[in-house]
Amino acid sequence: MLYFFLFYLGSVASEVMYVAGLAYAYRRGDISLVYPLVRAIPVLLVAAVTFAFSICWAMTHVQVAVHDGEAVLSLCGNTWIHGAE
Questions:
Q1: 70 bridge partner residues
Q2: 0.70 exceeded by pTM
Q3: Measured between alpha carbons, how far is 33 from 25 in angstroms, rounded to an integer?
Q4: SS3 79
Q5: Rounded to an integer, what is the distance from CA 22 to the centroid of its chain?
Q6: CA 30 to CA 32: how far, in whole Å?
Q7: For residue 16, what is the enclosing H or E element?
């Protein structure tokens, strides 16, 4: 139950910051510049966060080792061996 409220408060805080930033941007800038940026930023943020999480996930699920002159790469249970021929 606590996690629900933490996510809820985080969502509310994000929405308040978004609306306040949007109002400030519309007040200070030209709509022909602000509107496309405001529409594009959430898409770019989702891509950046997804990329960051995928890098973190890959770093925790990739294992590299050298054993008897062979390089062993293990990624999520799949193993590739490159021998020193």
A1: 67
A2: no
A3: 10
A4: strand
A5: 22
A6: 5
A7: helix 2-28
Name the 3-class secondary structure at 62: strand
pLDDT tens string 3-27: 899 989 999 998 999 899 889 999 9
In contact, 73 and 61? CB cutoff 8 Å: no
Q: Are 25 and 34 in contact (CB under 8 A)?
A: yes
Q: Which residues contact 80 (CB under 8 A, 6 or more apart)?
A: 72, 73, 74
The answer to whether the CB of 22 falls within 8 A of the CB of 38 is yes
CA 36/CA 38 separation, integer angstroms: 5
What is the crossing angle of helices 2-28 and 31-61, to 10°?
Answer: 150
pLDDT: is 27 or 59 the higher one? 27
Which two three-digit tokens encode residue 31? 């709509």
